[in-house]
Amino acid sequence: xxxxxxxxxxxxxxxxxxxxxxxxxxxxxxxxxxxxxxxxxxxxxxxxxxxxxxxxxxxxxxxxxxxxxxxxxxxxxxxxxxxxxxxxxxxxxxxxxxxxxxxxxxxxxxxxxxxxxxxxxxxxxxxxxxxxxxxxxxxxxxxxxxxxxxxxxxxxxxxxxxxxxxxxxxxxxxxxxxxxx
Amino acid sequence: xxxxxxxxxxxxxxxxxxxxxxxxxxxxxxxxxxxxxxxxxxxxxxxxxxxxxxxxxxxxxxxxxxxxxxxxxxxxxxxxxxxxxxxxxxxxxxxxxxxxxxxxxxxxxxxxxxxxxxxxxxxxxxxxxxxxxxxxxxxxxxxxxxxxxxxxxxxxxxxxxxxxxxxxxxxxxxxxxxxxxxxxxxxxxxxxxxxxxxxxxxxxxxxxxxxxxxxxxxxxxxxxxxxxxxxxxxxxxxxxxxxxxxxxxxxxxxxxxxxxxxxxxxxxxxxxxxxxxxxxxxxxxxxxxxxxxxxxxxxxxxxxxxxxxxxxxxxxxxxxxxxxxxxxxxxxxxxxxxxxxxxxxxxxxxxxxxxxxxxxxxxxxxxxxxxxxxxxxxxxxxxxxxxxxxxxxxxxxxxxxxxxxxxxxxxxxxxxxxxxxxxxxxxxxxxx
Lengths: 181, 432
Hints:
The complex is a heterodimer of chains A (181) and B (432).
Chain A: H1 4-20, H2 27-39, E1 50-52, E2 55-57, H3 59-70, E3 74-79, E4 83-88, H4 92-98, H5 100-105, H6 107-117, H7 122-138, H8 143-153, H9 159-177
Antiparallel strand pairs in A: 1-2, 3-4
Helix pairs in contact in A: 2-6, 2-7, 7-8, 7-9, 8-9
Chain B: E1 4-9, E2 13-18, H1 19-26, H2 28-31, H3 53-71, H4 91-107, H5 120-123, H6 130-140, H7 142-147, H8 154-162, H9 174-184, H10 190-203, H11 212-218, E3 219-222, E4 233-237, H12 241-259, H13 262-279, H14 288-292, H15 296-307, H16 315-322, E5 328-331, H17 335-340, H18 344-356, E6 361-366, E7 376-378, E8 384-386, H19 392-395, E9 402-407, H20 412-430
Parallel strand pairs in B: 4-7
Antiparallel strand pairs in B: 1-2, 3-4, 5-9, 6-9, 7-8
Helix pairs in contact in B: 3-4, 3-10, 4-8, 6-8, 8-9, 10-12, 13-16, 15-16, 18-20
């Protein structure tokens, strides 16, 4: 398991890459991308996720973002029209430099989640992250069954959209299966 | 039988409750809260802060009731989300949920261990927390819920009292999420509103006061389409933005002046050390009989015994607390230290431990939990926008954090000299 400072360094590195990719980098985006790092790539960040706001949500991660702000590693800024956006502070360099090797080690995973998810809308993120949640917690692998479960848990999601989300997840599997990530 | 009972309260003047609700109040589980201080040993710094969880819980019930009436008034529900909440236009359902939220608010703190939050994590068995205890006690009161008119579902009360974090197996609907937010929400939770007003009043620290009447009148359930989500949230009419700012500023001042006061913090640590010694190898489990007999009074009695008997566990810690001979601040990071080391407090703590011995040094680091002050605001033109796009004041409220290294007062002078001579080297060496 990563120690506290290593977790902080990886979260800051994720936020920096999201900002560089032009993402809104609101809390929901950070939550869902971190969920993928933890549950799709099995990086041991040790955040507990439950199905809550827009799909998988971690109160521990919410507190960690507060801690990163309190430590002056990230800052919050308004971003119209959405709301709060996070970005690394000047002091973040200190943390990222110290854990440069660790960040490099996970560069592939960080780039993958940023590439696939950082610029999705909250609604899109909710679907694909819930698909992963259903697959991992219910042990369901069939796309249609995953879709049905998503609709059961999130009635505002249509069956068609839920099926697309499950298929997208399968596409991620295929892309990562033979890569060096 | 008297149907309405009034209780005098220094914050809300009168708190009213029915005879059915009175049964909860009269239960031994709730009466126990008379013997749990709201602010642990803060009274050693602010002598007036001797109030308890009993009165706070009544206050939270009163405020939850008021907020519920305002935000579920059909005239106050935003057009775009009216269809999402059929409960609002059905008087039977609306009344049912009002009773649920009142009881959840009343019971939300039932599971606190002695001296409230202080040291909970280290004293309780893994998987236990005051929230899980609260849920278990609400289960125990099932008979009372069943006898109410109409009968209340225990799970509904648990959900609203404890929230989703501690009940991961239960699914929360949008309606239930909003009602939970009324009690425990980061921005406008009535738990927070009551403790700020009450703690401020008892501690004699005026910073915690704000116009909560105006705040409550302007609270609304609002859509958050600007944030690309279909999930509504608890927000505010633009007319209430300044009182919302004053609530959140009050929180900032109360944290800096009261909750994170350095002497209060070290007494929390001495208390934790005492309770650990007293428990020995044991930890507080989910045994409810044991829990319900464990109050501040019980701990103070064993602490007094430990003070008078060197052979009793926790003797030294009891002396520190009861004879008010606490450890002193050796170090707290400044901006210059933060520029050269990612965690200067830990670096100094580790070095001080080496120099003066583990038993003479204590570490403290704390920041409040919760998210940003990002909530929907209803503008005069009917549009809804994020609070962070509207209020510079909210965006500029600093994030509170305290970091301290404490030293046994017997070593304070030597330690100050040692730190002055070695600080720079410790901070630089640690961060290579």
